[in-house]
Amino acid sequence: MAMPKIARAEGAVAIGAGVHWIGAFDPDLRSFDIILRTANGTSYNAYAVRGSAGVAVIDTVKANFAQSFFSRLESVAGYDEITAIVQNHLEPDHSGALPELLRRAPAATLYVSHQARTMLRGLIDTSAFEQRIVSVGTGDTVTLGDRELLFLNTPYLHWPDTQCTWLATAGMLFSGDFFGCHYCDGRLFNDAVGDFRSSFEYYYANIMRPFRTHVRQALDLIEPLPLQTIAPGHGPILRQDPRDYVRRYRALSAPALHAADSRTLLVFYLSAYGATRRMAEAVAAGAESVGAEAGEVRVSLHDLEGGDIPSFVDLIEEADGLVFGSPTINGDAVKPVWDLLSSLATVDIRGKIGAAFGSYGWSGEAVAMIEDRLRGLKLRVPVPGVKARLVPTDEDFAACRELGRQAALHLLGRALPRVLDMASLA
């Protein structure tokens, strides 16, 4: 028995007085930017806003879907009426039809964020319309006669160029990728489509979570607005209870730990025969010896063999310091360590303290390899790692305790400046 198809809007869709959705549906997409799964496809949302003195087009669509975009646009506006084109985000799924739109609407000015100006030249040839580009920031406006678009600079949501556009007369926020999700449903509005909560949360976790500081800054700009509708770049248009989604973003982006007077250090390890585990315990003991009575450093041990990577990622997002212990097997760190490290692209870990330790049989490459990866992830690695051959000695355990102690001191800003041995750099 064939599954019933959901009715899909064929033309432009009115989403407010003088405002139309003119985007495109991509129901068969199953992965986005390689890394995101899209079980329900996606939509490329674009909008036309009509004022008494012109029409603004807000975002375009992926190049493959330009025909649908232009067909919908032509049903609600003539190209000679378009006075403004706004690109809230330059990623090709939003700007694919931009060059052709600029060609068809020669009287239109293109408005992008200050950060987008240089990026735009890297994406498309701007030589033919360079003089028509205007860069804008928070508080800048463009008039359409009886209505006005206000720009809000909201960088890193999720590219440096991103901005939001506010239409006060309709209480409508055009939010780009912010508040969006990959969920294709031709019924278009959040109160009409199927249950898209998992897609909304999945999108936040993989697109916005690494930039949650910027998420909170953007929310500070958006929360005071008298929101009636949020019109994102992907997924359902949020016309019913839009503040629910704002509140959800605030909750998702809020720090989970509230002990601002202490620092947290996580020690992860995996041990084949117990040597690396005992080293991990020594590292933790060394860290706990620093300010233990005052509770200044909170230390926790985590065995990677018995844990769950998503829950570890949640812990890492909140932590101040990370120490990884691995034996060297076949000239490499063990796979669970790499699995965890490769999962950290979805959280902001820049500037955290990192360190490594581990036991080995004959080569011992794991510690240096982990340190290199930590540096690649933009962590600070101020304390040299500790390697122990086979069964750790008392001296090895003392070195592990000192590693933990120094890591804790760095977390508290009490570490002495390190004196480099130039010979070690040769």
Described by strand count, sense and barrel closure, the largest sheet is:
7 strands, mixed
Spell out the CATH superfamily of the largest domain: Ribonuclease Z/Hydroxyacylglutathione hydrolase-like
Number of strands: 21
The residue-averaged pLDDT reads 93
- CATH hierarchy: architecture of the largest domain: 4-Layer Sandwich
Q: Give the count of structural domains.
A: 2
The dominant shape is: elongated
Estimated share of beta-strand residues: 15-25%
- Rounded to an integer in angstroms, the radius of gyration calculated over CA atoms is 26 Å
**CATH C-level of the largest domain:** Alpha Beta
Output the number of helix runs. Answer: 12
Amino-to-carboxy terminus distance: 71 Å
CATH topology of the largest domain: Metallo-beta-lactamase, Chain A
The main sheet orders its strands as 1-2-7-8-9-10-11
Low-confidence stretches: none
Q: What structural category do the secondary elements indicate?
A: alpha/beta
- Approximate helicity band: 25-40%
What does this protein structure show overall?
There is one protein chain. The chain has 426 residues and is an alpha/beta fold. It has two domains: 13-253, Ribonuclease Z/Hydroxyacylglutathione hydrolase-like (Metallo-beta-lactamase, Chain A), CATH 3.60.15; 263-411, Rossmann fold. Helix content is 29%, strand content 22%. The protein has helices at 66-74, 92-95, 98-104, 116-123, 197-208, 212-222, 242-253, 275-288, 309-318, 335-342, 366-376, 394-412; strands at 13-16, 19-21, 24-26, 31-32, 36-37, 42-44, 47-51, 54-58, 82-86, 109-113, 133-136, 141-143, 148-153, 163-167, 172-176, 229-232, 263-269, 297-303, 321-325, 353-360, 386-389. A seven-stranded mixed sheet has the order 1-2-7-8-9-10-11, with no helix packed on it. The protein has a five-stranded mixed sheet with strand order 12-13-14-15-16, with no helix packed on it. A five-stranded parallel sheet has the order 18-17-19-20-21, with helices on both faces. Helix 8 (275-288) crosses helix 12 (394-412). It is elongated and about 80 Å long. The mean pLDDT is 93.
